Amino acid sequence: MQSAFWTGIFSIIEKKRYGKKILETPIPEDPVFIIGHWRTGTTLLHQLLNLDPNLATPTLFQVAEPECFLSSGYYYRPVFRMILPKHRPMDNVRMGMDEPQEDEYAIFRLTDYSPLEGLVFPKNSGFFLTGATSFLPPDEPGQKRWNEALLSYYRKLHFHYGKTLVSKNPFNSLRIRELATLFPKARFIHIYRHPYDVIPSAINMWKIVLSQNRLNNKGSVPGIPEAIVIFDKVLTTIRQDLQTIPAENVVEIKFEHLEADPAGQMQMIYSKLGLPFREDLTLKIKAYTDDLKKNYRKNEFFLTEEEKHQIDLGLKHHIHFYYEDH
To answer: Of the candidates 23, 34, 25, which has an alpha carbon nearest to the alpha carbon of residue 255?
Structure first.
């Protein structure tokens, strides 16, 4: 209640102080959207792109307080410092007010619609994403409000940064066509990773996230079969929808390649999307990844032969397409 009260106050201040200037700012036509299933390396790619001073990523604070981040940062910063953990609970990725963050949290706050609602308030005993066919509002009025709120948020980010915006959001994997309509020159980076690594890591992530955010006694962590179905839905939709996007606005990369040669893969991404690659970025990328190697330890998971067999059967077409044909 107290947080909502202060957000309301700061929102009023923000509209009076910046409202006209924000409305005079054009909606950006060419954001870069990082898409892919959860635990495929979207966060690493987001962080590497954030090293480029010509690009801008929404920060944790900007997605936590999307209504008033322009006016309230000075006041909230001490509070956030006290309550924020140093690392994400599902891995060792650094957290902080100014660290890059996925914008689904902002979308949820601004539109009152997001699949995240099913995570916080599960409606049944199953996993909240089971059966999902879209991550967009189901009715036309809701879709219109969602579109307007998203455009307004990106306009505000563009006013604040004046740079090319980079969004990392796995939920956007099922919104590619809508995003391409809203942002006519949008560019998409799809990062993928072998299902043997993704499936157990995603299950572990949802277990932790559900335990920390679920506000009732319903809902459950997905098992291997449920995780396979969701993985298949996300990858199938991405493959279909990216075919509707101009080839020069799409690039797909393997996480394994990014991990092995981050600077080389980043140069390839920039070249494919027509982004200028600064000479000093190679050094920044090397410094960042060297630091990761020293201070970051990846989670390790064990799959039984039976679990691998389930994954092979359920996702063989994706494994063939991404790992045997490429």
So the answer is: 34
Collapsing DSSP states into helix, strand and coil, what is residue 93?
A: coil
Q: From the centroid of its chain, how far is CA 87? A: 17
**pLDDT on residue 323:** 80
Amino acid in the structure at residue 80: F
Q: What angle do CA 30, 32, 34 make, to 5 degrees?
A: 155
Nearest-Å Rg of the Cα atoms of the chain is 20
Query: Dihedral of CA 15/16/19/21: which sign?
Result: negative
**Tens-place pLDDT, residues 6-62:** 677 878 888 999 999 999 999 999 999 999 999 999 999 999 999 999 999 999 999
Q: DSSP for 45-83? A: HHHHHTT-TTEE--BHHHHHSTTTHHHHHHHHHHHHHHH
* Total number of domains constituting the chain: 1
What CATH number does the domain containing 157 carry?
A: 3.40.50.300
Contact 168, 60 (CB under 8 A): no
Containing structural domain, residue 165: 2-324
Query: Of the candidates 188, 102, 100, 113, which has an alpha carbon nearest to the alpha carbon of residue 144?
Result: 113
> For 101, phi and psi rounded to 5 degrees?
-145, 150
Q: What's the whole-model pTM score?
A: 0.92
Q: Which residues pair with 252 in a beta bridge?
A: 190
Model pLDDT for residues 167-206, shown as the tens digit of each residue? 999 999 999 999 999 999 999 999 999 999 999 999 999 9
Calpha distance 137→232 (Å, rounded): 22
Q: Of all residues in the chain, what percent are helix, strand and coil, respectively (each to 5)?
A: 60, 10, 35
Residue 228 pLDDT > 70: yes
